[in-house]
Design a protein that fits this description.
Blueprint lengths: L22 H8 L7 H6 L12 H4 L11 E17 L2 E23 L2 E14 L2 E9 L4 H6 L9 H4 L4 E2 L6 E2 L6 E23 L4 E23 L18 E27 L3 E8 L3 E16 L4 E2 L10 E10 L3 E10 L2 E11 L4 E3 L3 H4 L1 H8 L2 E12 L5 E10 L12 E13 L2 E17 L8 E18 L1
Antiparallel strand pairs: 1-2, 1-21, 2-3, 3-7, 4-7, 5-6, 7-8, 8-9, 9-10, 9-11, 10-14, 11-12, 11-13, 13-16, 14-15, 15-17, 17-18, 18-19, 19-20, 20-21
């Protein structure tokens, strides 16, 4: 598949003089599918068609003008991440769980000549990067050693040479390694972090039926990546050391650890318009500005090799360090996002729908090294315009204090020529109960699934794995109007 190698965090493949960034970094910051409140999460993007409480600050700030009393909202989420990784016809399941706040914010409405204006302030856990993957398999045709060997001609930074798994032969100075396959391989990968946004917005009634709104968000957060990779000569294929021709080496195992730590900050804004007809129909249009992210990054790698005679080889790391280290700073500029929404309310039921278009080919790296700026051309060749669509409903149970909600959202694949299953499906189910006329408790269960390919190393299929992520999110929200 043409885009497989672009889905790898290339820090695993590149020499230490090369930065650790890939197109995947830019996509990660441009395609968050988080939610602000339990009510909005249950309905997905289709909540944009309603936008009549605190969550309107994020979906369509024009809807803030529908509030007539102040509102306080706070939420908490439990997420269980289920991952299945398929590598060399071997499937490995793994699960992990996390607890985090989802949001906390206020809305303060006040009367104006044309109706209502409202100011809103809030914190939102906009997106989570938390993920854990594990894979294992016996590779008959490939090893990571030739990939490491070909990273750089600088022998002081060549990992395969430094641990005696590659050497020069024939007086040519060209590196060679006899380790080319029949190797047991395994890896354990953890990703952590998320995007936190602090947002201020205002919605203003222009007339009885039309309002406008705007918000500004400051974003911050972190992303960490840690990989523990191993190869093992399970069949004892490499059982002697040929010191003359280097046709074999008494290789037993290698361990390669790779780490990335990104800290980032950013800003963006949203403009929205909302129209209303006969108290039953609402429509909205939103334009989200690009987010300007500043990324500060450090990355490191360590490697060791064990041989049949008990020897353990480790590199002579530069400047007496305990690893190969690097750091970098750069900017990521995400695209404009255009959205439209519609809702219809009749008696005790509301139906809503919404769509957004996010042209990922417009992502840019900026203020970066020339090697990184070259990725902008690859972005044009490999990414898609991403389309998100959503439908939802909210049902007030007559003569009770209960509300039921449901929604479905679909997100198209980010990459051209992507694999089957790369489209993300999100199902939300929720309920609300009024504990008092001005106090409501909202509950949410949210299920989604998607698949992505990554390369363990190289740019072919010999070391590709496909992982399927199926997070389950359970959220509770407290809403108080006063």
């Amino acid at each position: 598949m043409k885009s497989t190698f672009l889905l790898l965090l290339i820090v695993l493949l590149q020499g230490t003089s090369i930065s650790a960034q890939t197109i995947e970094d830019a996509v990660r910051y441009s395609t968050t599918t988080g939610y602000s409140t339990a009510r909005a999460g249950a309905m997905g993007l289709s909540y944009s068609g309603i936008s009549d409480d605190y969550a309107a600050l994020y979906y369509n700030p024009a809807g803030l003008s529908l509030l007539t009393t102040s509102e306080f909202s706070v939420g908490l989420e439990f997420m269980k991440m289920n991952t299945s990784t398929n590598y060399l016809q071997t499937s490995t399941p793994l699960s992990s769980s996390f607890v985090s706040p989802t949001n906390c914010g206020f809305v303060f409405p006040f009367k104006i000549n044309n109706g209502i204006a409202a100011i809103a302030l809030g914190y939102n856990h906009e997106g989570s990067f938390d993920n854990t993957m594990e894979f294992t398999g016996f590779n008959t045709i490939s090893s990571i050693v030739p990939s490491l060997m070909n990273e750089t001609s600088d022998l002081f930074q060549n990992l395969a040479y430094q641990v005696f798994l590659a050497d020069t032969i024939g007086g040519t100075g060209k590196l060679h390694s006899p380790i080319t396959g029949n190797i047991q391989q395994s890896g354990f990968i953890t990703e952590r972090g998320g995007i936190h946004s602090f947002t201020a917005g205002v919605g203003i009634s222009l007339s009885k039926s039309v309002s406008v709104g705007i918000n500004f968000s400051g974003k911050s957060g972190s992303y960490t990546y840690s990989s523990e990779y191993q190869e093992f000569d399970k069949l004892n294929t490499y059982n002697f050391n040929d010191k003359i021709n280097f046709s074999s080496v008494d290789f037993k195992s290698l361990i390669l650890n790779s780490d990335i730590d990104q800290q980032f900050s950013g800003v963006n804004g949203t403009v929205g318009i909302q129209g209303r007809f006969d108290n039953s129909i609402r429509f909205g249009v939103t334009i989200k500005s690009p987010t300007f992210y500043r990324i500060e990054e450090v990355f490191s790698r360590t490697i060791s090799a064990t041989f049949d005679n008990g020897d353990i080889a480790t590199p002579k790391y530069p400047e007496n360090e305990s690893s190969y280290n690097g750091r970098n700073t750069y900017d990521i500029i995400t695209p404009f996002v255009f959205g439209a929404s519609l809702s219809y309310h009749y008696q005790w039921i509301t139906l809503s729908a919404a769509a957004e278009y996010n042209d990922l080919t417009q992502i840019q790296f900026d203020d970066a090294l020339p090697e990184l700026l070259k990725l902008n051309n690859q972005i044009l060749k490999t990414l898609n315009g991403s389309f998100t669509y959503s439908i939802g409903t909210e049902v007030e149970i007559p003569t009770t204090a209960f509300i039921l909600r449901a929604g479905y959202s679909g997100v198209s694949a980010s990459y051209q020529n992507d694999i089957v299953g790369a489209e993300q499906s999100i199902i939300g189910l929720g309920a609300g109960v009024y504990l008092a006329p001005n106090i409501r408790l909202d509950l949410l269960s949210r299920f989604s699934t998607y698949s992505q390919p990554r390369a363990n190393y190289g740019n072919g299929d010999e070391a590709r794995y496909i992982y399927t992520v199926s997070p389950t999110q359970i959220s509770v929200q407290f809403v108080y109007r006063y």
